């Protein structure tokens, strides 16, 4: 469980996120809803200690420095060593987690061998996104944060990813953000929304409700 206690974020005198108290359940897929610029990506950066914030963020009783190696973020624009091959990136970023043969065995479920041997600077946006998803399989983090994960993926890969995220949630605490609601509708367990700059829990059992993310977004009158 990830707990936020009196959490807030300001830039100079401008309030981005007002004081909020909420929790992200373990083995759960939480979705954070809000328009562009509301602070979704900023929240993830605060969780990783990349930006200063007020309040506390606690990961199963620990601060970020004690669990950092068990966290993974997949950003919309995935950073890689672009002059190295896809496989070389996986070996470096996944050092000590799996053997070369184990990584190759997992990798071919996402990208073919020829592409894995090519430099990442030749990859399309969607291919880089698949390479980033591979890191989840290689690193097997306890805490997984995904920002606009469905962007750049074809329909077949999105269908596969739906099943994989549900499987990952059996062992991981997952936070996702995005705007392609038709994709997220199928995987979300708990829903959090921005309301008057606060982050509040809108529905702890969204997966059992009859509403769609589209309906709720419209109700928030963003």
UniProtKB/TrEMBL annotation:
GO molecular function: ATP binding; ATP hydrolysis activity
PROSITE patterns: ABC_TRANSPORTER_2
Keyword set includes ATP-binding: yes
Keyword annotations: ATP-binding, Nucleotide-binding, Transport
Every ABC transporter domain range: 2-221
InterPro entries: AAA+_ATPase, ABC_transporter-like_ATP-bd, ABC_Transporter_VariousFunc, P-loop_NTPase
Protein name: ATP-binding cassette domain-containing protein
């Amino acid at each position: 469980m990830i707990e936020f206690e009196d959490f807030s974020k300001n830039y100079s005198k401008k309030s981005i996120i007002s004081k909020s108290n909420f929790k992200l359940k373990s083995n759960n897929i939480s979705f954070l809803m809000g328009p562009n610029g509301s602070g979704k990506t900023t929240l993830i950066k605060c969780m990783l200690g990349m930006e200063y914030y007020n309040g506390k963020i606690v990961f199963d009783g620990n601060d970020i420095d004690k669990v950092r190696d068990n966290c993974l973020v997949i950003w919309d624009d995935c950073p890689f060593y672009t002059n190295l091959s896809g496989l070389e990136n996986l070996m470096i970023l996944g050092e000590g987690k799996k053997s070369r043969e184990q990584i190759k065995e997992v990798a071919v479920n996402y990208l073919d061998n020829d592409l894995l041997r090519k430099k990442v600077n030749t990859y399309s946006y969607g291919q880089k996104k698949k390479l980033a998803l591979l890191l989840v399989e290689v690193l097997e983090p306890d805490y997984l944060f995904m920002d606009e994960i469905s962007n750049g993926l074809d329909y077949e890969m999105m269908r596969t990813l739906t099943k994989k995220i549900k499987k990952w949630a059996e062992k991981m605490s997952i936070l996702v953000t995005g705007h392609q609601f038709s994709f997220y509708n199928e995987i979300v367990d708990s829903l959090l929304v921005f309301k008057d700059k606060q982050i509040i829990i809108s529905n702890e059992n969204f997966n059992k409700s009859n509403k769609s993310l589209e309906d709720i977004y419209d109700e928030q009158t963003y």
